[in-house]
Each structure stands twice: as C-alpha cells, then as structure tokens.
Amino acid sequence: MSPAQWDLPPELCCRPVAFVALTGLDVVYNAIHRAIWDAFCANRRADRVPISFKVLPGDNEYPKCRTKRTSYEWYIPKGILKTGWMNKHLNLVPALVVLFYELDWDDPQWKEKQSECATKVEIVRTSLQGRNTKVAVVLIQKKTPLPPGEDLVASERASALCGACDLSGKSLFVLPHTDHLVGYIIRSDFLFLNKHQFKMGFFSELKQDTQNALKYYRTAYSLVHELRAHETNMLEIKTMAGFINYKICRLCFQHNTPLDAIAQFRKHIDLCKKKIGSAELAFEHTAWMSKQFQSFGDLFDEAIKLGLTAIQTQNPGFYYQQAAYYAQERKQQVGQLCSHEPGVGYPAPDPLETTSGALDFYGQRPWRQGHQSIDPPDSEKEKQGILALQVKERDIPHSELIIALLSNAVAQFKKYKCPRMKSHLMVQMGEEYYHAKDYTKALKLLDYVMCDYRTERWWSLLTSILCTALKCSYLMGQVKDYITYSMELVGRASILPEEQKSRIEKNLIKVLMNEVPEPEPDCDPLSVKTAQSLWSDRISLAGSNEFTIEVQDYVPFVQCKAKFLSPSFHIDEPVQLHVYVRADCPHPVRFSKLCVSLSNQEYNQYCLLEDASKGKDILEPSTQENMCLVPGKTRKYCFKFVAKTEDVGKKIEITSVGLMLGRETARYVYLNWRGGWGDAASSHETLQACRSFKKRTRFPEQQVDWDTVTIQSSTMIISRVPKISVQLTHEPPALTNEMYCMIVTIQSGEDTVAKDIKLTAGLKPGQDANLTQSTQITLNGTEVCDDSHPALLPDIPLGDLHPGQKPLYIHCVSTGSRILLFHVAYSVSATVEGKDITCKCHKDETVTLETVVPYEVAMKFVSSKFEHLERVYVDIPFLLMMDILSASPWPIELVNSEVQLASSMNAIDQPQSQVEGVTLQTSECASECFLLKCPPVQNGTTFAGDHANIVIIVVIILAVNRHLPSYVLELPSFGRVRESLPVRYHLENRTGLVQDVEITVEPSDAFMFSGLKQVRMRILPGAEQEMLYNFYPLMAGYQVLPQLNINLLRFPNISNQLLRRFLPSRIFVKPQGRNGDTSIEAA
Amino acid sequence: EVLCCANYPLYIRSVPTQGELKFHYTVHTSLDVVEEKISGVGKALADQRELYLGLLYPTEDYKVYGYMTNSKVKFVIVVDSSNTSLRDNEIRSMFRKLHNSFTDVMCNPFYNPGDPIQSKAFDSIVSTMMVQAF
C-alpha cells in the first residue's frame, strides 16, 4: 500500500464523461483525418456535450468481458468495487466505437470497399467481445451529398452497406469533407451521445444525468451501510462509503444545494466516526477521517470558487481544521501503536506485496484479497500484515501533513474574518513545526501570533505559547529570543507555577552570566545535545553579547515608571526626576546600570546609576544593595540636575529609561522603556488601578504603592521668578491725542546687582490692528507723536539697576480701551546646587488704559440774525458759531483757538481767539463766534480750527448761490411812535441778466406808509434801483414792518421767502417821550 | 465550561481540568463569531438585540454558545456535543443565571470592574450549574 492510500483515486475525483473511441482515422499521415480529429477535440466549447475521445486502432484490445452470471444465487462477492472498474469505464471501454471509412457513393470499386468496411466493423465487434458498446460507421466522402431522396444510388448503396455491416440505418453517417466540418461534427456529437445506453445507475453521471446519478448514489450509500460490518471488511466498507459520500457531496455542490452536501457529510461522519476497525490500526481510521474532512473541504472550496458564498461559521476552514485535528490524532496514535522495539523490522516476505502490484478491490487487505468471512484466514499472516502497515505508517511525515492542512485552514479563516481562529491555527502550526524540529519556522509563527494574545490579555494562552517559543529558542541557541521569552515567562503575564518561574529565572541568570542554561523540559534529547554544543559555542564567541529589548512589545518581569517631580522647574532650582523600578520574578535580581535618556542628551550623565563595584573605588557601600530588586517591592531612584540657561522655555522629555541586566564583562541586556514607562500590559493595569476603589494601603516610609505612581514624562524649564517690582503710576483715563504720561518704577529685590535691565513698553501685541496704528509711544514728552513713532518700544536699555523711574508718553489717537505691556528683562547671577549661573529674569506688567475724548466741538453757521443757515450766500456775511464742550474728567485749559479759513472765505474782521485762557470744568461749554463772508466765485469751503494743542479738522461743504440779486436795506435802528421813519431799499442786480422785478408792499397794522405800493420795473445787469418809503409807526414795541414782496418774473422758482431772509422784518418802535408831548400838542 | 470575558478573561473555569488549554483556545476563537454577530446587527437594532447569541459555531466535539450583556461582557458556554440533555432553552436559562450572578458581582462596591472575578457566590453558582449540566 502506498502512503497515498488515503487519497481518493483520481478517476473518482474527476467529472465523469463518456468515452468514445474513434477508429479508422490516420491522424498522423492523413490531413483530412487530422482535420476531423481536431474538429472533434480541439474546439470543444461549453455548449458541446462533454465527451472524451480517443483514437484507437481498429483491432484494439478492449478489456475482456467476463461471462455474465444469470443469477446471484451461488455468488459469493469477493469485494464491493474493483479498483480498476472506474478507470475501465472512463478510459478503456468505450461507450461507442466510431469507424471512419473513406467511401463515396459513386466509388468505382463500391463492392470491394463495401466488403472491406464490413470486415472492419466485424473486427471492432470481435475485439469488443460482446460488451454493450455501440458501433457506428462514418463514411468520409469527398463530394457534397445531394439532398436526401434525390440520390437513388446513395440510398440504395447505404442500405446495402448497412446490411453488409449489420448496422441499423441510424448508425451510418456520412461526413462530407467540406468546409462545414465543425458544424457536422457538433451534430454528430449529439447523435453519438443519444445512442449511449448504460446498464447501471453509476453511469447516469456519464450521461450527465446527475439527478438520477445522485439518486443511485444515495441508494448505494445506504446499501453500503447495510452491509454486515466486522473487523475484516471495515476498511473496505469505509472506503466505499467515503467514495460514495464524495460523489454525493460533489453532486450536491454541483446542483447548488450546499446544505444537502453538508447534511450528507455530517451523516456520513456520524455513521463512520465510531467504526474504528482494528485497534492496532486505529491510525488508519483517523487517517481516513482526516481525509474525509479534507476532501470535503476541497469540494467546498471548489464550490466557492465556482460562485458559492460561504459564511464565517460555515466555511471550508472548519473542515481543514478538523482534518488537521484527525491528522494530529493519527500522529499521536502512531506514537503509541508504532513505537516498536528497535529490533522489529519490516516483515520479510512483504505481506503487502500482491501479484499484480495493485489491489483488485478498493479497501481490501493485500494479504487476503477477496476473503469475505468474519475471521481472518491466517492469523500469522494477519499479524505480519498489521506490523507491515505499522512500520510503513511510522515513516509517514505526519507533521508535514498536519501543517499543510493547518495552513489550508488558516487561509480559509483569514478569508472569513476569524482572526482569533487564525491565530489559534498558527499556534498549532508553530507547535507542529516544533515537533517536526523546524524550530526556525516554529519560532517565526509563534512570535507572529504572540502579540495578539498579549494585547487580548489571554495570559493562559500566552504562557503556553511562550513556553514552546522558549524551547525553540533554547534548542536553536538564540540568545536574544531566549532572554526575551524567559523575561516574559518569569514576569506577571505568565501563569506558570512558582517553581517553573524560578527555574526559568535561574536559567536566565545563567545566560546573563554567559553560561549554558539548563535544557527545557520535554525536549527531544537529540536536539538538546545539539543545543548544548550550540550554547557552549556562544560562550566562546566574543562580541554580540549585548542585547536591547524594547519593552513596550513585551511584558517583562521588571516594571519601570519614570517621572519628573513637577510639570515645570524654575531655572534656579534643580530638576528632579524619580525612577521607580519593580520586579515580579520569584528571586531577587540585581541590575548593573540604570540610565535615563532625556530629550536634551547633555543631562543624561546626571541620570545614571552604575554598579560601583565595577568601578575603581566603592563610593557608597549602600549602592550595592540599592541595585538589587526584591520581588514585589518598588524601588525609587532619585536624580537631580541643574538645567542649562539655554533651555529656559524648553521642554525636557524622558525619551527612554534603560535598565541593564547582566555584566558588561559577560553578557548583558538592556531593557528599554520608551517614554520612561510602560510595557504591553501596563496601560490596562493603570486604567484598572485608577478605577479601583481599593483603599490605598499605607506604606511605610520609603515604600511606594506602585499603582499610585503617576507619570510625568516631561517638564518645562521656566525662567527664574523675578525679584523685582514694576509699578506704574498714571492717572487714567487718557484723553484722545493727549501725550499721556505713565511712570514706570522698577524696584529690585535681588540680592545681587540686576544687570542689563531692559524695558519693553507699549501696546501689548495681539490686539486689534487699528490700535497699533492709533497708538504711539515715546520717551520724549515734549513733542507730539506722529505716525513715525512705534506702538511698542522694545528693549529700552536701562543699564544696571539704580532704582528709578522712567516717564513714558503714550499718544492715543482713537478712543477705546487698550492693553499696554511693560516687560522688564534683566539678568542676575544665582547659585544653584553650588553652581553659579546667570539667570535671565523678566517681569511683565500689563495695564488696561481707557482713552476718552477730552472735549467736543460743535460748529454751526448762522445768519447775522442768529438764524440757522442751510447755505451761505456770496457776499452776504454770516456767523460761525463754535461750542466747545468739555468731556474730560479733568479741568482743561484752552490755550488758544484759531480758525483756519480756506481761501474761499474771508474773515470780516481779524479773527482772534475769544476763549484764550479759559478753563473748562467737566461738562462746561465755551463758545466763540466769527463773522465771515464768502467772496464770489468759490463754491467750496474748508474750515480748519485749532484749539489748544489739539487739531481738529472740520470739512464743511457749502453750496453758494451765485446768480441772485442782492438787496440792501437802509433802515434806522429804531423808530418812534408817530414819527416819520424813512426806509430805503436798494436793489442791485449782480447777475448778468436783465431782471424784471415786481415789488409789492403789504400793509401792516402797526404802520402807515407812503411810497409805491405796487410797482414793476426792470433792472439792468450791474444796475441799482432805490425804493424810498416813509413809514409812520402807530404802535410802540417790536413791530412787524410792512412786508416787501419781491417777485423775479424771470425766475418764478426763487422763493420770496429766500429773498426776505436778508430783509429785516421787525423794528423796535419807541413810545413817545414825555418831552415829546410837544408834537402831540402841535398835532 | 463557563467563561465571562470582555475579550480578555474575567472568569474561566472548566471541568475536567485536563485539556483546559484547548478550551481556552476554543473560547478565544469563539470571540471571532461573537464579534461578527455583534457587528452584523445594525446600530439602531443594537438596543433591542437579544442578549443570547445562540450556538456560535459547530465543532466536531463541542458546542459553543454565546451571550453578551449590554455592557459588552461576553459569556461563553462550551458543552460536549454528545450532551443531548442540554437544549437551547436550558442553555438560555444557564446564561440568565450567570448574568444575574454577574450583576451581583458588579454590584459589589469592592469589585473593580475589569478585574478577574473572585467571588465565592459566583463560584458556587457556576459549580452548581456545572454539576447539573455535566
């Protein structure tokens, strides 16, 4: 029996197709025949019925057919299925033999050819010897046949040929050798197929009638299990059941009923699981089971490739996994059953040898083929046979089989999102590689999955993997891996019992001493020997004795936490750093070096603890004890250093903490905690610890509760606290445009001289951009700032500190609040930890300054009658009224005021300030008044006024009417009752046009008058007209004058009202005096 | 065999104790299916989700059942496939009992959620359940 005995025969696995033999074709020498053959075989597309063709010589020897029994009465079956049977029907016995023969209907030698053809048919018939195989004849003709019925010769000769060959008319074909070869051949395919007739259900499948085939298979399957099963034929029954099961499942998948397939398979497994057969050959059963699962997995996988969808819980991976499981079991059984004494060899006359070299029936024992009774015929022979099988089994590479199955399963589970299942299988693969002594591969696989279990915190599983990995690394003499795995196994993540941990720790210490560790238990003794020599080689090997282990990927037995004592340190105090180290191994462990690396590496030298015994002199005897880690106790190491002045404002971070185990003279390993703390398990532990409600147990002095140690892995170096005071003296609010004075007083409280004091004063950066433009700072208060002055005066050197003051002027152009910054920087020398350093200190002082408007200036234009003016007129004088209202909280003194007139305007008298020297209290108001006149031509006026030392620019646009006549009235300042009052109106036309004027005088109650009451006249350009009236007042007091209405006929739009503005409308009439009685008397 | 876990074991116990490691692997791998089942349920339905997850996956020798509380603590029960006395309903009630007992554990002010369960009451519940079932 070959090792591949459990493999399914290939003819079982392939899809059965009908076998058709073609004879009479000479494909080698005849081009036409070749073309026919190619047409049959070459272009077989899916639309054509699957048939396998073979060219055979006419007298081919077909397998002999045994004489059929007429009854089963005295038939003792020797077995169920002969081994050659399927192959016979697939490849040897054709379902149809086709005889090709070149013969045209009108061949001149028809008779001879006909008899030759008949002979050939006869030869084929004879060689088939009564098998139920059809024979067909194909005539290859060179001429295109005429339509049927027309060629009388043809039909006559065809029937003659059929008679001669003993063929039915349906089995005779004509294949004209024309262009349509392929078309003809496709048709003939079908014809051949339809003629297949097989006697057995098994052949249904050959006919592609899979439904029927399935039915037959199912019956066959149940029949197989109805057979009487005993030890001798168990294997045969199982083999057959396996075959039929395979066929059924395959067809179910083919019919797209995967659930049926799975159900059938389950049934099959349940039925066969307990049919172990011979106990001595139990491995045969597990091998068979493994094969069952594997082949079902293959079928399933194949179906998926053809479009079936599988799910997570039902995918081929499970079957491969189970197959692997049985393979493992098989291997175990082999270990138990086949561990013969060394003397026992392979039995001398090979009981597995058969005369034919192969078995007649599937699943039978070679030494008793065809034997059907319950008891073995020859017990000695049986023993020899079993021994032979066992010996053979021993040589089978079980691990390889298992690994192949497992890797199949891994590939499947990867596909169906089962990461954990995948890891599990990979662990199994790793273990199998370990058993197969392929330690490199084992270690690679185990190392790969280890981190999954570590992050998932399945310590029990991790421990078991680590143990295997440790064995591998030991056997390969891999120092670094050995150290890494031991460290983890000794540590808190491992659930190993204490004595195991202790053993491993002792080994670890040996390795660190550069000695050979004790072998791991349960290792292959042969491999241990090689390993021991490997390890001793390592000892003599110089160099490569330094290892660094990045702790964050593991859970080693030493834990570390490093922290700065404060999130920030002033430059004049030492930076303090504590490192807490704890070991959780069973025995105390000594380390030789502890070093902290910081982001600024210059400080690293201060954070170093080294084994003093290695050095020349022992400085502190306590150091020795100090560097020993007692299990379960937390050790604290303090480091201190003075930061450099350049580092002020910078962050110092702990980049890593390194702990050296072992000696530099022997072998040592650095445990490196990146960031100063934490391994693969500590983040979760920290979380749990902070959640914990457990009462913190009070620890005695010098001992720390590990969980309460918090992490502070970075610190800021900040400048020294300044011992100076900055005082600001000023009186807010500031007034707009004021040169606002602030006095900065700096007072030093330093013990030594404060040097290089620099003051930066001004607007605090980062405020509104408009503020920057509207704020100016200067040290010189005597002149007004302009835009050239900055908003912030940086670094005003003040020299060494002599306590003093510094006046500063601020010019705020706009109102609103602004923040001012006063930054005083200086340096001072200080002594820290016996070190002199020059500290730069600075102090910031900010103040919010409110700026208000000191006074408001209101201006208005009024007429000479103090009436409000919308517009001013050329040559007509008007008044500019100026009101200055103080808004300042302080009294303000008006130094001067000035009206700056634009050229378009003239002052009628010399404009002098009328408010000079006036002091205004809060909300007091000062007014002044200027008489102005616009000369003609100009139409825009700009006023500029200057008051005190503040500039206000007022722009007023005035519209001036240029073309109107102007009127002048000569009127006495007062009248007297019953005294004649002469009034003269001057009308002057200043326009370039002749003006038609209508003048009317309306009567008034208070006056009688004489003169023209209504008149029309014409005034030439530039001419003047006088109107003289005599008014006679009747009443005393303010009286309304008779109203003069002027109508400009050419400009009807010019309102009378407008013109009247310039005319006085009232006059004061004095009563008659006492002494004036004379006039009354005279009257 | 019983276990409660939040992807790492809070409590794990098995009878018989030999071959324990294999059970641990079985439970660990079953979390794949639990995760897949949970993620399969839509967000909206997550609240109405039934806690009992049913048979997680078939193996030749064991049946693995799953259950997940609303706080995402998972319970897994592994029973021998030959044990036919345990039907779906029995498994359900076992889970319910476990859940109740687990709730009691959580209510203990001295229990820190996330720590391995070391409760005598829980132990005894599990023990009685195991005695009944196996």
TrEMBL record, chain A:
Belongs to the TRAPPC11 family. This is Trafficking protein particle complex subunit 11. It comes from Cyprinus carpio. Keywords: ER-Golgi transport, Golgi apparatus, Transport. The lineage of its organism: Eukaryota, Metazoa, Chordata, Craniata, Vertebrata. Residues 233-491 form the Trafficking protein particle complex subunit domain. Residues 988-1046 form the Trafficking protein particle complex subunit 11 C-terminal domain. Involved in endoplasmic reticulum to Golgi apparatus trafficking at a very early stage. GO terms for cellular component: Golgi apparatus. Its main location: Golgi. It is found in: Golgi apparatus, cis-Golgi network. Pfam families: Foie-gras_1, Gryzun-like. It comes from the Eukaryota. InterPro entries: TPC11, TRAPPC11_C. One of its GO terms (biological process) is vesicle-mediated transport. The keyword Hydrolase does not apply.
Automatic annotation (TrEMBL), chain B:
Signal peptide: none annotated. One of its GO terms (biological process) is endoplasmic reticulum to Golgi vesicle-mediated transport. It is found in: Cytoplasm, Perinuclear region. It comes from the Eukaryota. InterPro entries: Longin-like_dom_sf (IPR011012), Sedlin (IPR006722), TRAPPC2L (IPR044760). GO terms for cellular component: perinuclear region of cytoplasm. Transmembrane segments: none annotated. SUPFAM superfamilies: SNARE-like. Keywords: ER-Golgi transport, Transport. It holds the Pfam family Sedlin_N. The keyword Transport applies. Belongs to the TRAPP small subunits family. Sedlin subfamily. This is Trafficking protein particle complex subunit 2-like protein.
